Amino acid sequence: MTGYAAATRDLPMASLSAELKSVNGRFLDLQFRLPEELRPAEPALRELIQARVGRGKVECRVAVTPFSGAAPRISVNEALLAALADASRQVRAAIPDAQPLRVGEALHWPGVLGDDGSAALREACVALVEQLLGEFAATRMREGEKLARMLVERIERMKALLASIQPKLPEAIAAYEEKLAARLREALGGANDERVRQEIALFGVKVDVAEEMNRLGAHLEEAERVIGKGGTVGKRLDFLMQELNREANTLGSKSVSKELSDASLELKLLIEQMREQIQNIE
After folding, report:
1. Which CATH code is given to the segment(s) 143-278?
2. Which of 26, 45, 102, 266 has the fewest CB atoms found within 10 Å of its own CB?
3. What CATH architecture does domain 3-70+124-139 belong to?
4. 10-residue stretch averages of pLDDT, the chain, 282 residues long
């Protein structure tokens, strides 16, 4: 489903702005647009979003705007520096000719230097995106409610369609059997009534759609129940659309009247309209 949320937070050294937006998609596709100083926060952001979003193409964009005149502050990891100095003394004690550790070498040692603002900036970024996810989820929830109303309306239309054709089926089948019997008698020269009755009985079995009608009704009831229950329902509804489409196709293949064929086509149209939307629902 689609969704959008944006927010800005002012920090001592810079302004941090974040934006979350998504478009429809059957699977979860995350894309990040982060400045270099926030790249280490990407795994945490990915985990945060995956915990709240199951489907859609989601883009997370974060920007950092330093305040005018703000200068970065550099910190020294004193514990690590002391450990380096101690190691240097131990080496020189064991190897008197060894050169002492130079300042440049110590400063380039991984972890000795750090930007005081980097860790705080990453923490603020994760916190801001976590805050955004609440608003982002709310926008998707509102869209989900609209989709739910649309789906229920389609289900009610299909139920009404099934109810309208149910009483007409015996009459349509009887009329077609009578027409078939006349053609068989004509083909057989008016004799062999037993053969005609056998063919009619076989035809009646082939065109019986009671099972398909019952299954369609059961699937529609289940779809309505799943929608009303809420939660993560996309995959369940997607499966039900496949089952509904299969039964509607079988109903059409067994059609004995134009009215039943038209009903089958309308059912498939309504099912396809639902399926297109359901593929985007979590």
Report:
1. 1.20.140
2. 102
3. 2-Layer Sandwich (3.30)
4. 84 86 83 87 91 85 78 69 87 87 80 65 89 86 85 92 80 65 63 61 62 87 87 83 89 76 88 84 72
